[in-house]
């Protein structure tokens, strides 16, 4: 590419912008004065956003969305033709793994191919999606194949779902580009959001994102493995954890046990493992531990209760606390295992609308045993004399916990 310079970015398109990553980013940058176009194929979700309603739970977004719509700076479309009018195109699509736990490269390639076919010389293409190592440089080669003079940057999102609007302006932004100019343009964009910039080569930026989620996933697996060991010894895992972490700095990273789920942790660990010739055996073992936890809990219950005539209630079906996202939630795997072992399974969740779910009151009244699936605030002070399995150690000590004895 030539050494020509470009005016500051003012028009931004967010591809996949109606999702959990794209929509908070679009709202924030529109609030900051950018002219923002959300491009998404989900017409139903776009209509909901146009009406001023958020399609999912995100802190402070219910108030921000109508404010941004009133400015006229937020536009919504399902047509990719809108990409040509932008200075910056940000891709925020999900990058799932397939049935073999390998990255679904074809879906990503299809979106990128469509995106590039509507871009023009001089634009900046920024990838926020999680990708496996080497994808950014490969994308740079694809741009050359399209004979496009487009700068390519990779800037992984790092937010915790539900806290995006706060973290986007507080957390440092990792920035990389296939050329120094691409990285410079991406850095300038985030500096306008007053973010601290950490610049890396593309391969290191890709690894930084994958290392972060894999590290957390493996840490959760360690805690879950220790929980299983404590249960087999008839010990209280939370009491042991409190003993080894209290005023002991070297153990402050010891995570609590619980369902390690959601759309990122397992997926990113498997992405890191997929093309590394099984070198990441630690990640694969973590997957077996974390994904096996629902089965372990049910097997432990079976050693103390005849489940066949009983009704078991699952408190929380979202993948994490105070969240309305059920994607990859292990509560659904728990429900599947319980369905084969007990008379009836009741599920409840205050954030997820599902006609198959029951109210909290009905779940408490009709269940013989309860299992905490997500640590929603609504459950913290529940009153019941039913045995409760609480692998998270979330409920007060007064409630029945652990092995449901």
TrEMBL record:
Name the domain of life this protein comes from.
Bacteria
The cross-references to Pfam families, in alphabetical order and at most eight, read: UDPG_MGDP_dh (PF00984), UDPG_MGDP_dh_C (PF03720), UDPG_MGDP_dh_N (PF03721)
Which keywords does the record carry? NAD, Oxidoreductase
Q: Among its keywords, does the record have NAD?
A: yes
Extract the InterPro entries matched here: 6-PGluconate_DH-like_C_sf, NAD(P)-bd_dom_sf, UDP-Glc/GDP-Man, UDP-Glc/GDP-Man_DH_C, UDP-Glc/GDP-Man_DH_C_sf, UDP-Glc/GDP-Man_DH_dimer, UDP-Glc/GDP-Man_DH_N, UDP_ManNAc/GlcNAc_DH
Species the sequence originates in: Planctomicrobium piriforme
Q: Which SUPFAM superfamilies match?
A: 6-phosphogluconate dehydrogenase C-terminal domain-like, NAD(P)-binding Rossmann-fold domains, UDP-glucose/GDP-mannose dehydrogenase C-terminal domain
Q: Name one GO molecular function term.
A: oxidoreductase activity, acting on the CH-CH group of donors, NAD or NADP as acceptor
UDP-glucose/GDP-mannose dehydrogenase C-terminal domain sequence ranges: 313-397
A Gene Ontology biological process in which this protein takes part is: polysaccharide biosynthetic process
Q: Matching NCBIfam families, A to Z? A: NDP-sugDHase
> Family assignment?
Belongs to the UDP-glucose/GDP-mannose dehydrogenase family.
Protein name per UniProt: UDP-N-acetyl-D-mannosaminuronic acid dehydrogenase
Q: Gene3D superfamilies given for it?
A: NAD(P)-binding Rossmann-like Domain
